[in-house]
Automatic annotation (TrEMBL):
InterPro entries: AhpC/TSA, Peroxiredoxin_AhpC-typ, Peroxiredoxin_BCP/PrxQ, Thioredoxin-like_sf, Thioredoxin_domain. Its EC number is 1.11.1.24. One of its GO terms (cellular component) is cytoplasm. Signal peptide: none annotated. GO terms for biological process: cell redox homeostasis; cellular response to oxidative stress. The keyword Iron-sulfur does not apply. Belongs to the peroxiredoxin family. BCP/PrxQ subfamily. The active site is at C44 (cysteine sulfenic acid (-soh) intermediate). This is thioredoxin-dependent peroxiredoxin. Thiol-specific peroxidase that catalyzes the reduction of hydrogen peroxide and organic hydroperoxides to water and alcohols, respectively. Plays a role in cell protection against oxidative stress by detoxifying peroxides and as sensor of hydrogen peroxide-mediated signaling events.
Amino acid sequence: MLQVGDQLPEFESVNQNGKTVKSADFAGKKLVMFFYPKANTPGCTAEACDINDHISLLKKEGFTILGISADSVSAQKKFHQKFGFQYDLIADESKEILEKFGVWQLKKFMGKEYMGIVRTTFIFDENGVCTRVIDKVKTKEAAAQILENA
């Protein structure tokens, strides 16, 4: 998994509207990338809505927000429209970004093992250096966790 001090990996994918988004777009910006397992599920909805509810505070701190999952563009679009998110959701169906960040991992649930996204938030400074990794995300307090030590 990506760690504090690591450089933002180069990536390119599409947002909920099918528009290309790439790592170079965020040069010189403080970037928060939160990885979530699946759009429109209870925990992911709580996390994404908490971030959206506090977007003005996050922007005041200079953060640009990106949510990322392996969902399709259409699933991301429905999720985005349903809750009126004020930030992009990235569709990483190829799991290329997930793998670069190390969040596509073997998980266990009710005795079954499967590959899935480990809910994680990465914060990068204006130079693209990872300054924090939040690996124990509290879905209903996601924004407060991002703002800690901001």
